Amino acid sequence: MKSVRLLLLSVLFIVLLNEPIITLVDHAVLVLGIPVLYLYVMGSWALLIGLLAYVIHRTTATDDPLSDDD
Amino acid sequence: MTSLPLILCSLLYLAVLFIIADRAERRGSATGRSVVSNPYVYALSLAVYCTAWTFFGSVGKAASEGIEFLAVYIGPTLTAPLWWLLLRKMIRICKQQGITSIADFISARYGKSRGLGVLVTLFCIVGIIPYMSIQIKAVAGSFATLTGQTYTPGSLFLSDRAFLLTLLLAVFAILFGTRKLEATERHEGMVATIAFESLVKLVAFVAVGAFVTFGLFDGPGDIFGRAARVPALRETFQFGPGHSAGDWFWQCLISGFAMLFLPRQFQVAVVENVDEKHLNKAMWLFPLYLFIINLFVLPMAFGGQLLLGSSANTDEYVVSLPLRNGQLGLAVLAYLGGFSAATSMIIVETTALSVMISNNLLMPLLLTRVRWQARWGMRPGPFVLNVRRLAILGLLLLAYLYYRIIANRLSLVSVGMISFSAVAQFAPAIIGGLFWKRGTRTGARLGLLIGSSIWFYTLILPTLVPTVFPQRLLTDGPFGIGFLNPQHLFGLTQYDPISHSAFWSLLINTGFYVWGSLRQPVQVTDNNQAMLFVDVFRINRSRDIPIVWKGTSLLTDIRGLLATFFGGQRADYILDRYTRRHHLDTSQPFADPRLVAHAERLLTGAVGAASARILVASVAKEEPITADEVIQILKSSQTLLAANRQLTRQSAELQQLTRQLSDANELLKTADQQKDEFLSTVTHEIRTPITSIRALTEILYDDPDLDTSTRQRFLNTIMRESERLTRLINQVLELERIESGRAPLQRSMVSLNELVKEAADSLRPLATDKHLLIKTRFPLEPIRISVDRDRLMQVLINLISNAVKFSPDHGKSVEVNLFSSADTCTVQVIDRGVGIDPAYHDQIFEKFYQAQANGVRKPKGSGLGLTISRTLIDLHGGRLTVDSNPGRGSTFTILLPLPQSELVDTSPATPYTV
Fold it and tell me: B283 vs A7: CB contact, 8 Å cut-off?
């Protein structure tokens, strides 16, 4: 279960941080004083790390350590 | 700032590192609880990923191309969630098999192939040398910036500061990486220093970043706001104009691979891992580290360009920005951060590579030499260590040379990416090897060879262009062949050189890996290793490592082998512990196969899988497992399986027999009951007429004065009852005769038309009494059939008389229809009488049953007529059925099979008939 959740997380952010979605913010525009592309990439990156920590620690607390071996 | 204080500063820093390493190792061996056994230290040690390239090069690349530098850090973050699947499996396998390097890993997976180990090692050396050379370049460059010199390489090696630095790093790496020969190849001291260095570079970089962003400017908004007013800078707010759709993706991909397959990453992430649970924290702490260290890269890049313009090398902004603003302390901290990034990379990388060189390149070669065996065979331990020390020195000298000749002209990032693309070539063989049992040695070798050739052709060749090859190579292609242009292979101009190379090499590498694997059947030893890799979790859970090893070796030989590498005391300890833990029999002079396998695993840790194989084979009289034997093992289990299946089948048959038996018993019981009922019915049926006969005769006898008409009537009744009695007894006898088979059918050819007509005619008088008509219908062609004429006549009369009997007076006519189809003929007897409820359709054919519902108790007849009829039709091979509803009359149908022999009978003269 843990592996599946993590895999989905990886796939989701591969989509979010690659073409063509990333081209949606590929403009030389400032948002909050920061170029929108930089803001988007750093923001989703931080979100991914947060979600990763959340998923790992929620499932680690409940999962049988051997249940993920297959 | 002059050179001397900076040199002293560097040496002091190295001394601190050495103290940390020493403390960590002492504490580890003294208390048994290592400082390294900690998820935070593990995550920090993974940050060896961030080298001088990150420290200096990121800012440089961001200054010229904006956000593209981030792909190298986004890639590992995107693949971090997959570590739970990938990295954990690698860790488990390596622990189980005593694997200590990436070359060993690939060689062990593909049948402990020596050739593959050599190939991977050589390719690693070629791929990593440029990467190490940029560390030298970065440190030398920052040193020069800080001391205010414009750096120019000295003409003599000894007068060149970079050369002295190389030597210093070599000594340092040797001190850390090759202290003693370990079975597990774990270096606690090294990991502790790497973790410390990761902290130093993070603190240094963030400090400089924060100073630039908030000290020199008014926060990131200020920097970007001012940069937006410069058109050249504003351009880099988005992907550059030369940026194509795929570059970012391919760079993310190869960075994700590099994070796992770079020799130093493999060393810290897999080999030095103490507990695989540490992955849980590392999986998000390591990306967090990358995130924090990159937070100030973009502000620094833009800040640097706004303040310094082109007056400073963009790769040196981290040092020159604080230096030019009077922050000497901060500049020295930045220098130390870069220095720590470079040293940590070089220590781990050279250690990992030197292990690969000794275990996969030199030892297998030397162990097969008799002369070497004679000279060093007694004490190979120190020899192995010396080989590694020399290897480290050699690697660093090579890196220095590469830096002198080539890397000096290139930026830090571009050289680093070349190394990343190199190790990405391992991905098909490793990932395929982890999840695909069918992957074979041939496939791995082919894929690696061809992938690395393409890598070399597309990335290394262009860097040699002005020095070795003419410029024309890049513009016109080799010998003027355009589609072989190393940077635009087959005319692909879409990508930048790195993505272009990654795409072609990975595509063709994977293709050949799959093709080579499927091309030929898997070999036995290959398959054994494939199973140990792919099914590692399942094997682990059953706590049973299948050892496919056959052979005999003396216990003393195994002990001797271990003693030469680990010392006598250690060898005794290892053997003793293993024997006790597995309750092995030590009275035998021969070693248990499990013990031999264990010894081989330990030796694998020290000298590599291929060498360990050779060593064990040299003392063991090994009989290779043949395909026959494997088949034998499979067969014996198959026989067991077959026997089991047969047993199941037999028990099922037995059950069925039991069921049949109980069914038969049930049938017998019913038959017995039926016989009882039959007897009681028969006696009842017989008693009724006898009672009436007896009563009437008694009256006649007692009263002689009865008038004639009454007497006549009584006598008539007596006669009728006697007839009935006779008929009943006859029928019972007949039924008994038919059922017991004592009345065989006397078949003859008859015309069914005539038979039906005759039966109907004989019953016309009875029908006329009730004012009924009997209508018959026949086909024109007479139906000829072989039957017992009298019996069939009896059945027809019975059915037609029943029909007449149950039709009301003046009722509708009784119909008798005859028709035939291809293989059956049908006689229908239809009346419009009272009819029979469908519930009784089966019972009317039973003995003595007369439908109760019709209200006529005891009509004329014995109650055996239909039973006899059905029995007779059954004897003819036909069927007698009824279709009826109360109040609508009944239809009795006789179906008789037409004799198939008729055709033959009618054409006996046909000459062709056989």
Answer: no
Of B680, B703, B738, the domain-final residue: B738
| Closest chain A residue to B218, measured at CA | A33
- Chain A hits for B67, CB-CB cut-off 8 Å, are 37-38, 41
- From B491, B525, B559, give the residue that closes a domain: B525
Q: Residue B717 and residue B795: Cα distance in Å, rounded?
A: 28
B288 close contact with A: CB closer than 8 A: yes
In a domain, B250, yes or no: yes
Chain B residue with minimum CA distance to A31? B221
The C-alpha of B67 sits at a distance from chain A's nearest C-alpha, in angstroms, of 7
Domains identified in chain B, total number: 4
**Domain coordinates in residue numbering, chain A:** 16-62
Question: Do residues B465 and B505 share a domain?
Answer: yes
pTM given for the model: 0.65
- The answer on B759 and B733 residing in a single domain is no
Is B84's Cβ below 8 Å from some Cβ in A? Answer: yes
Kindly state whether residues B721 and B798 are assigned to the same domain: no
CA–CA min distance B534, chain A (Å): 10
Question: Quick one: which of B251, B255, B225, B256 has its CA closest to B239?
Answer: B251
Residues B483 and B632 in one domain: no
Q: Measured between alpha carbons, how far is B13 from B139 in angstroms, rounded to an integer?
A: 14
Cα–chain center distance at B131: 37
Give chain B's count of helices (H) and strands (E): 39, 9
Instruction: State ipTM.
Output: 0.92
Divide the 914 residues of chain B into consecutive groups of 10 and give the mean pLDDT of each group: 81 88 77 75 90 86 83 90 89 84 89 86 90 86 78 54 84 79 69 90 92 88 86 77 70 90 90 86 91 90 84 81 84 90 89 87 76 63 82 90 75 78 91 87 90 90 77 75 78 81 92 89 74 74 48 76 78 82 74 78 75 74 54 56 77 89 90 80 80 87 84 87 85 80 81 87 86 86 85 88 85 87 86 82 72 45 77 87 85 84 44 39
Q: Which of residues 540-559 of B touch A (CB under 8 A)?
A: 540-541
Chain A, window 1-40: residues with a beta carbon less than 8 angstroms from a chain B beta carbon: 2-3, 6-7, 9-10, 13-14, 17-20, 22-23, 26-30, 32-35, 37-38
In degrees rounded to 5, what are phi and psi of residue B747?
A: -75, 145
**Between the CA of residue B259 and those of B50, B287, B435, what are the distances in Å?**
10, 11, 19
